[in-house]
Design goal:
Order of helices and strands: EEEHEEEE
Strand content: 35-45%
Strand order of the largest sheet: 2-3-4-5
Mean pLDDT: 81
Largest sheet: 4 strands, antiparallel
Structural class: mainly beta
Number of strands: 7
Number of helices: 1
Shape: globular
Length: 137
């Protein structure tokens, strides 16, 4: 399932979304499920730049079926560069309260409690990545 919204043609300095957190069962280590936001810079004659953030269940990366906070980047259209979280240079952990790659303990249950995380990225001189754990539904 996909949902998509996008804006073209102007300068934008941020993005925010609230996503519902689930823990789908992933049968194979190389499969994953996620809910995320993307910021994409697609300049003609240049490689695609992408920054992603959200939650992900990815046994091949994290070793379990827990939903985990993740970030990802590429600066060459997913050809050679890019990686998740802090596994290579590209992101610097600055918060001592939010841990990139941490399991999200509160997850939604069908026909019962629903849990969300708010994701926000915005630009201040250089791109600053912020993730806010906010409200429960």
């Amino acid at each position: 399932m996909h949902a998509l919204g996008y804006l073209l043609g102007k300068q934008y300095h941020g993005i925010k979304a609230t996503v519902n957190v689930w823990a789908p069962n992933i049968a194979h280590n190389d499969d994953f499920s996620n809910s995320q936001i993307w910021v994409i810079s697609d300049v003609p004659n240049h490689d695609l730049n992408v920054i992603e953030a959200g939650w992900m269940v990815y046994p091949g990366l994290f070793g379990d079926n827990s939903p985990r906070l993740f970030i990802y980047w590429t600066n060459d259209g997913f050809q050679k560069s890019g990686c998740y979280n802090l596994l290579c240079s590209g992101f610097v952990q600055t918060s001592n309260q939010i841990s990139v790659g941490a399991a999200i303990a509160e997850i939604s249950t069908y026909s019962s409690s629903q849990f969300n995380i708010d994701l926000m990225m915005y630009k201040v001189n250089i791109l600053i990545f912020l993730v806010h754990w906010l409200s429960r539904c």
